[in-house]
TrEMBL record:
Residues 2-132 form the PARG helical domain. Substrate binds at residues 180, 194, 235. This is poly(ADP-ribose) glycohydrolase. It comes from Genlisea aurea. GO terms for molecular function: poly(ADP-ribose) glycohydrolase activity. It is an enzyme of class 3 (hydrolase). The keyword Hydrolase applies. Pfam families: PARG_cat_C, PARG_cat_N. The active site is at residues 177, 195-196.
Amino acid sequence: LMNRNDAVRWFKDVVPKLADLLLRLPELLEIHYRGVDDSKTETGLRLLESQHAGLVLLSKELIAALLVCSLFCLYPDTNRGFKLLQPINFDNLFRYLYESLHSNQEHKIKCIVHYFDRICSDIPTGNVSYERKVLLLSKNNQSEPDFWSNSTLPLSRFEVVSSGFIEDQCAEALEVDFANKYIGGGALSRGCLQEEIRFMINPELIVSMLFLPAMGDNETIEIIGSERYSSHAGYASSFRFSGDFTGRSRKTRIVAMDALCFPGAKQYKVEYLLRECNKALCGFSTTTASPSIGVATGNWGCGAFGGDPQLKAMIQWMAASESSRPSVAYHTLGVKELGRLEEVVKWIGDREWGVGDVWVVVKEYCGKRWKGETVDDDLFRWMMDMI
């Protein structure tokens, strides 16, 4: 994990500074709550319970101190599972270093070590906000198919991105975290997929696991302002820490959305189609009257979660459009089922379809798949052959 010289420097220089930061935690919390008392809205550190929309705003220095507590395994585990909260200490992260068959666990820890190196040489400034978003399904009847079929909104501009990761794009966007319903997923254990990697290269995301219980079907979590500290290469077993991230600083906006897990054929049933559309709508919606930034996403709920990539692409396009997002940058990551995505997007655009038009066709296709009538056809081929 470290050569001898790095280990000597770590224990001589970094660990004492981390201990000093830890000792400042009471003072940092006092400053935090004093600032909250002066605020017009409630933003203090607290449990953001399920079905209760709310926001926590933390300084990056306080976040660093809270993460030092995780490193030193100081948080009590009692009742966290009962409250639907993930473990927050780093003990399992280190434990699986010795049990893992792959070196990716070592590289996850290298990302964390690098974060602590950075903050000890230069304490970060600024804040990060953590928000539980709740879609009130009864308010606009989103739980009914007619909500989507009656939509007259135009489709957002859709760009197919065939290379690179979501976090590597230059343009400001709402970046999708393909989340577990327990925020962070296996970040602090042996997980190393899209969400876990994002939590390693942006460690300020990890603090969300402290106070955000599992998401319900109508909930997402949006985190604004977390900094990326590490560069990386690879994915899953091939994941590698590749040094300091020196890209230009920007205000990251990340939304954690959990898709159906191993849905199989039921993903084509209308109630689950609605669930996914409304989950994405919750994630992409904003209280701003005119959302100015687009969405950067990809194969949400596919891969390890087993979703249909073509269906998920259409779902996210509809949800982003219904949220009035100006654009979608869709990272295909080489998934072969999306080889015709650009062609399909142009085909839909040439017909000037809106959200309601796409919904009607997708719903019809899903109905046939659920009944087993089109098991040999994919959505794109069926859609283009039907019209």
